[in-house]
């Protein structure tokens, strides 16, 4: 047997404190647990149990559940923020009104909206926006249903189906994207059209600034409205408000010491999946890896071929691959030093006792701290306030200037200092740990609520299924940026992938997109994709060439706008593109080199020069499709502006008429974007 000691407060329990173990265990089991990342974890049931344990004690006369009215919290999340907010609001409302209401938090993906939504009395939605103003994968069905229902009411005079529903929405987004928090806005509008009543105006959270603060503000207003309008009854429960939330969300972590405890688990054990979903990644084999830039280029971009033979995954040109990546060894080792544990420490994670086992999602075997940190913990993303506060909780005992500063930054009076120290320079968790060397979060808390889960990285496939049915091609630019804190940030995923060799394995899955070639080969297409934005167009061309050869059918015009710094440095896939041009797979190749001459030349400039020809192909009365891929924050906006201008000139009208013409193209599915 291994010698098992409980890791509770950051170090192994010494003999005298073992007597406390059971007491502390109870506390742990009461700890509100939630895991911030969704990928493989659905933790609502657990959080529910933990909270209800807290609630039951002080409430004297509880109302039988049949009489309780229901409050529902639905979230559509990709990386867990919306889920965290849903649970936060739920627990705040439960503290105040716990004895008279029943609360349900649910992933919108698992929610039977057609059956249940019209019957809700009070519902709060937390919806993140992805892609190009699109819903998260989990909310696609709900979004489709509600937009269609709203359209039926406004256009066909169908009956309003949500007249009995009161609601409020918190939309999550990032102002750097063109369609800020579009999902929240759109669903809000639909619900109003369907006759639902707003309890409080929609909140929009901006992840580029302080999304936690946006949430707090919205929540305050909402709670005031709920009380003022007596939406959940008049009496705020005194007893319940006195309940203090205990401890921090935490896993139970056992450190297995002693003779040779073998880690039985590689955390990507789940990678024996079939490669069709994030929960089911397939351990794909790298078959080819090569650099795409010429030696003189100061940057790097590489081509990977990932063999999915043996998986159930299939794909179409325009789809994405998701890959679970890992932190580099030096980042893992530095994190271990800050946590004061050896990377070789063998751990076993458990959900706190008393929680339903439906969650089986924290790894069930044993794992080294090295593996857990490499594959699980995001320590380099800009740190959010909520995580900082939990980190600060772990430094309660720290004295002196360090402790004072820690508490100040976490509290309301340190708001500006926090903004200047953490938010503006986008300081990451590891840097925060370095700035507060006396704080050593216990591993259970660290993984439970401080470090968020490392997310899979997505890549637009640069192959077509005709030629490469099982080989997924990836075109990846290496991130190597100096960030505002002065640190050189090596992109977690791109640098990890950059080191891969043929034979290495990648936990991968295919993710379907809506970025698609037209069905007919003779329909004109205009593709705009500088840099790695070229990726899906290489896939399109591969597929077009294959279909053309197979069917002998004629090809319509295909314009490709590509841009990079210099022809001699980073003109990726040059030979292939020139070959396709020669064969007529690409009819027009427009190249913009931004650093070749004195003037910056970008794809939007080339587009402007070709405005008349391009617009003739894609204008609403024509048949052509226009595609944009690559950088969302700058390029896609500039290109969009150019397209609007093109449309405006063509109709001789105003910018808003230009905008309307493009919207028409979007509605027709003929203006598609794959931007990130
Ligand atoms: C649908 C989709 C398709 C995509 N297709 C492609 C593709 O075909 N090719 C491709 O190369 N990429 C593509 N991407 C982007 C890709 O998924 C990754 O985001 C990219 O490889 C960078 O990941 P990384 O882990 O290397 O960088 P990360 O470590 O995630 O860093 C990403 C960026 O954030 C900045 N950053 C990170 N942490 C901090 C910090 N603490 N402070 C300040 N700044 C910070 C970095 O400087 C960098 O600019 C796509 C993304 C999506 C969503
Ligand atoms: C690839 C990608 C695309 C995004 N697209 C948009 C967008 O179009 N509009 C927007 O407001 N926010 C966009 N965002 C920002 C997210 O909505 C925001 O970070 C949000 O807080 C995520 O919430 P979640 O953790 O619940 O998934 C995007 C983020 C990513 C990573
Ligand atoms: C892949 O696995 C998932 C879950 O393990 C399953 O739901 C799905 O049906 C499988 N898909 C195929 C095509 O086998
Ligand atoms: C990253 O950039 C730095 C300077 O900004 C440079 O010295 C270093 O060689 C680059 N590393 C890689 C792997 O490209």
Automatic annotation (TrEMBL):
EC number in record: 1.6.2.4
Transmembrane segments: 15-35
Tagged with keyword Acetylation: no
Residue ranges annotated for the Flavodoxin-like domain, each copy included: 71-223
GO-annotated cellular components: cytosol
Cofactor: FAD; FMN
Keywords from the named record: FAD, Flavoprotein, FMN, Membrane, NADP, Oxidoreductase, Transmembrane, Transmembrane helix
PROSITE patterns: FAD_FR, FLAVODOXIN_LIKE
GO MF term set: flavin adenine dinucleotide binding; FMN binding; NADPH-hemoprotein reductase activity
Residues of the FAD-binding FR-type domain: 279-518
PANTHER family: NADPH--CYTOCHROME P450 REDUCTASE, NITRIC OXIDE SYNTHASE-RELATED
Full protein name: NADPH--hemoprotein reductase
Source species: Apatococcus fuscideae
């Amino acid at each position: 047997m291994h010698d098992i000691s409980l890791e509770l407060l950051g170090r192994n329990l010494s003999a005298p404190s073992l007597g406390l173990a059971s007491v502390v265990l109870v506390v742990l089991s009461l700890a509100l647990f939630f895991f911030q990342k969704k990928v493989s974890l659905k933790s609502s049931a657990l959080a529910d149990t933990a909270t209800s344990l807290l609630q039951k004690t002080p409430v004297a006369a509880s109302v039988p559940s049949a009489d309780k009215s229901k409050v529902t919290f639905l979230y559509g999340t990709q990386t867990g923020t919306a889920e965290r907010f849903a649970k936060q609001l739920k627990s705040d409302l439960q503290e105040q009104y716990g004895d008279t209401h029943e609360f349900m938090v649910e992933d919108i993906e698992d929610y039977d909206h057609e059956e249940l939504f019209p019957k809700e009395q009070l519902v709060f939605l937390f919806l993140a926006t992805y892609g190009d103003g699109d819903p998260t994968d989990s909310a696609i069905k709900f979004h489709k249903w509600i937009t269609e229902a709203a359209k039926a009411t406004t256009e066909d005079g169908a009956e309003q189906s949500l007249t009995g529903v009161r609601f409020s929405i918190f939309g999550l987004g990032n102002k750097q994207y063109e369609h800020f928090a579009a999902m929240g806005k759109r669903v809000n509008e639909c619900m109003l059209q369907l006759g639902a009543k707003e309890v409080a105006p929609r909140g929009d959270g901006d992840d580029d600034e302080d999304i936690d603060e946006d949430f707090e503000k919205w929540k305050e207003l909402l709670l005031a409205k709920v009380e003022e309008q007596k939406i959940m009854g008049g009496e705020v429960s005194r007893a319940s408000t006195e309940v203090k939330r205990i401890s921090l969300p935490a896993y139970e972590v056992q450190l297995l010491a002693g003779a040779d405890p073998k880690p039985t688990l590689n955390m990507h054990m789940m990678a024996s999946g079939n490669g069709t979903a994030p929960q089911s990644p397939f351990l794909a084999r790298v078959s080819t890896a090569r650099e795409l830039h010429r030696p003189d280029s100061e940057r790097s971009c590489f081509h990977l071929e990932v063999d999915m033979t043996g998986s159930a995954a299939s794909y179409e040109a325009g789809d994405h691959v998701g890959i679970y990546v890992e932190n580099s060894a030096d980042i893992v080792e530095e994190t271990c030093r800050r946590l004061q544990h050896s990377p070789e420490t063998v751990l076993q994670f458990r959900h706190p006792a008393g929680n339903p086992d439906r969650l089986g999602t924290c790894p069930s075997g044993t794992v080294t701290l090295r593996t857990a940190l490499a594959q699980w913990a995001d320590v380099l993303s800009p740190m959010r306030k909520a995580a900082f506060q939990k980190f600060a909780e772990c430094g309660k005992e720290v004295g002196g200037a360090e402790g004072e500063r820690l508490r100040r930054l976490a509290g309301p009076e340190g708001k500006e200092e926090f903004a200047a120290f953490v938010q503006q320079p986008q300081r990451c968790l590891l840097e925060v740990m370095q700035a507060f060397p006396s704080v050593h979060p216990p591993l259970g808390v660290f993984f439970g609520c401080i470090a968020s889960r490392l997310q899979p990285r997505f890549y637009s496939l640069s192959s077509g299924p005709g030629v490469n049915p099982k080989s997924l091609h990836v075109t990846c630019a290496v991130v190597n940026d100096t960030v505002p804190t002065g640190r050189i940030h090596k992109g977690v995923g791109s640098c990890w992938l950059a080191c891969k060799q043929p034979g290495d394995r990648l936990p991968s899955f295919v993710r379907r997109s809506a970025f698609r070639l037209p069905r007919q080969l003779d329909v004109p297409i205009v593709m705009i994709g500088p840099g790695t934005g070229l990726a899906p167009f290489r896939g399109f061309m591969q597929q077009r060439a294959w279909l053309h050869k197979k069917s002998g059918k004629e090809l319509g015009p295909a314009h490709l706008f590509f841009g990079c710094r210099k022809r001699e440095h980073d003109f990726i896939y040059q030979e292939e593109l020139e070959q396709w041009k020669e064969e007529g797979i690409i009819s027009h190749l427009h190249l913009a080199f931004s650093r070749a001459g004195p003037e910056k030349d970008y794809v939007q400039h080339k587009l402007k020069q070709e405005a008349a020809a391009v617009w003739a192909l894609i204008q609403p009365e024509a048949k052509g499709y226009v595609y944009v891929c690559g950088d969302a924050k700058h390029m896609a906006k500039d290109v969009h502006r150019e397209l609007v201008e093109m449309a405006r000139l063509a109709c001789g009208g105003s910018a808003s008429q230009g905008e309307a013409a493009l919207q028409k193209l979007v509605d027709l599915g003929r203006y598609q974007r794959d931007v990130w």
